[in-house]
Every structure is written in structure tokens, then in C-alpha cells.
Automatic annotation (TrEMBL):
<dbReference type="Pfam" id="PF00005">
    <property type="entry name" value="ABC_tran"/>
</dbReference>
<dbReference type="InterPro" id="IPR027417">
    <property type="entry name" value="P-loop_NTPase"/>
</dbReference>
<dbReference type="GO" id="GO:0005524">
    <property type="term" value="F:ATP binding"/>
</dbReference>
<dbReference type="GO" id="GO:0016887">
    <property type="term" value="F:ATP hydrolysis activity"/>
</dbReference>
<keyword id="KW-0813">Transport</keyword>
<feature type="domain" description="ABC transporter">
    <location>
        <begin position="2"/>
        <end position="224"/>
    </location>
</feature>
<keyword id="KW-0067">ATP-binding</keyword>
<keyword id="KW-0547">Nucleotide-binding</keyword>
<dbReference type="InterPro" id="IPR003593">
    <property type="entry name" value="AAA+_ATPase"/>
</dbReference>
<dbReference type="InterPro" id="IPR003439">
    <property type="entry name" value="ABC_transporter-like_ATP-bd"/>
</dbReference>
<protein>
    <submittedName>
        <fullName>ABC transporter ATP-binding protein</fullName>
    </submittedName>
</protein>
<comment type="similarity">
    <text>Belongs to the ABC transporter superfamily.</text>
</comment>
<dbReference type="InterPro" id="IPR017911">
    <property type="entry name" value="MacB-like_ATP-bd"/>
</dbReference>
Length: 224
């Protein structure tokens, strides 16, 4: 599903941040990628999601070599096939719970078609699955952190993208809520057989994943 080979990326005027000789994630795999602060985790996610492109080497996601796509095609690709959970959730504060959850399907025909026109039913179903008992008309800015997080998960899951990516999804949560959140994310991805990539420096959530990788180990492959 995701494959990097001799992939290199450097921010302008910096040494290479990403230098990965060989790294793959198979369909349906649940991978935990840890790494110290500044090791390049978010940079790697921006490559896998096509926000940035590798400067040399190969990065293939879902059979497509992303750097060969024009920027707007990469945006479409991301919207169609990836669900993203941000560290600070990035909900649109003035929009309602429902509109936040539905936002991805406004931008993606593929996700829209997968939900088959039953958008409002789908929102209700997701809220139920995620045990989120909240008025769907409530503005996102008036939600608690835990509620915001569940809305962020619902937004990532709508339209059943094949790949779910979460960047430090537990950083705003304390111990118990962290565990609950990971249980939820995991069971939702298992149900859908989604490929899950979670990036974090929090090793306490690592045990349930199929695979735990350390960015420092897979990165820098050019020099070993
Ligand atoms: N937009 C940018 N422009 C220039 N350099 C950047 C940019 N974003 C990140 N970097 C640099 O790339 C390196 C890796 O940053 P990145 O954010 O990918 O690390 P990280 O592992 O996600 O860190 P953290 O755990 O602290 O979030 C850092 O040295 C950072 O300064």
C-alpha cells in the first residue's frame, strides 16, 4: 500500500531529513512509527500524503508514484484515499459537528460515492459507533477535547478511505483517555480493514500494532 525505496527529501537549505532505503506498509497493516522530536515523522507523513514530494527515489502509495502526479492530482489523491487525524484535530471551529464530519466528502467524489448519498445516516452511524452523544448542530469550538477527537476520527473515517494516518493523535490526552482513544481508532480500522499508520513518540500506545518501527532505524539507510 505504501512503499519507499531510496527515497530522499530535504527541506530548503537543510540536510536531508528523510533518507529511506527500503520501507513498506502492506494493505491492512497497522503500523506504529515512533521517533524522537525532530527526527522527521511529520515530514515523512507529508511525503506519504503527497503534500511534499521526494526529491529522489521512489514513493508509491496505492500503486501511484506520487511525485509523477501534478499537485492538484496529488490533492485529489489525498482527499480520495486518505483519512488524516491531526495532532490538534484541526476541526473547523465555526462549523457544526455534522459539517466537520461531512467536509471530506464535499471535496472527494470517491468518498461521496462510497457513502452512496446517505450522508446524514452515515454521520449518525459514525457518532453512534464512536459513542459520541452530542448535538450534531453544535459548533466544533464548543466541544470538549475528547469530543473533538471523536469528531476528528469520524471525519477521517467517512468515505472509508483505504489509508488512515494519525500524527501524534494522543498528545492532547491523559493516560486513560489515551487508551480509550487508541482502542476506538484500532477497532474502527480493523472493521474496515484500513491500513493504519500512527506516528508518535509515545511508546505506551505501541503494543497493539502489527508492527512498530523507529524512524531512526529506517531512516539514514543511505549511509549504512
Ligand atoms: N516547513 C519546514 N521548513 C523547513 N524545515 C522544516 C519544516 N518542517 C520541518 N522542518 C525540519 O525538519 C526536521 C524534522 O521535522 P519534523 O516536524 O518532520 O519532525 P518530527 O519527528 O515530526 O518532530 P516532532 O516529534 O517534534 O513533531 C526538523 O529539523 C525541522 O526543523
Amino acid at each position: 500500500m505504501i512503499h519507499l525505496e531510496n527515497a530522499q527529501f530535504a527541506w530548503p537549505n537543510e540536510h536531508a531529513v528523510i533518507e529511506i532505503k527500503n520501507f513498506s506498509i502492506n494493505k491492512g497493516e497497522k503500523v506504529f512509527l515512533k521517533g524522537s522530536s525532530g527526527s522527521g515523522k511529520t515530514t515523512l507523513l507529508s511525503l506519504i500524503t503527497g503534500i511534499q514530494t521526494v526529491q529522489s527515489g521512489l514513493l508509491v502509495v496505492r500503486g501511484l508514484e506520487l511525485k509523477k502526479l501534478k499537485p492538484h492530482k496529488r490533492d485529489l489523491f489525498r482527499g480520495d484515499h486518505i483519512g488524516y487525524i491531526f495532532q490538534q484535530f484541526n476541526l473547523l471551529p465555526w462549523l457544526s459537528v455534522e459539517d466537520n464530519i461531512l467536509a471530506p466528502i464535499l471535496f472527494s467524489k470517491v468518498k461521496r460515492q462510497k457513502e452512496n448519498g446517505h450522508h446524514h445516516e452515515k454521520v449518525a452511524e459514525l457518532l453512534n459507533e464512536l459513542s459520541l452523544d452530542v448535538d450534531i448542530k453544535k459548533q466544533a469550538r464548543n466541544l470538549s477535547i475528547g469530543q473533538q477527537q471523536r469528531v476528528a476520527v469520524a471525519r477521517a473515517l467517512i468515505g472509508n478511505p483505504e489509508i488512515i494516518i494519525a500524527d501524534e493523535p494522543t498528545s492532547a490526552l491523559d493516560g486513560d483517555r489515551r487508551n480509550d482513544f487508541m482502542n476506538l481508532l484500532f477497532s474502527e480500522c480493523e472493521k474496515r480493514d484500513s491500513t493504519l499508520l500512527v506516528v508518535s513518540h509515545d511508546s505506551t500506545i505501541a503494543s497493539r500494532f502489527n508492527r512498530v518501527e523507529e524512524l531512526e532505524n529506517i531512516n539514514g539507510g543511505f549511509h549504512v
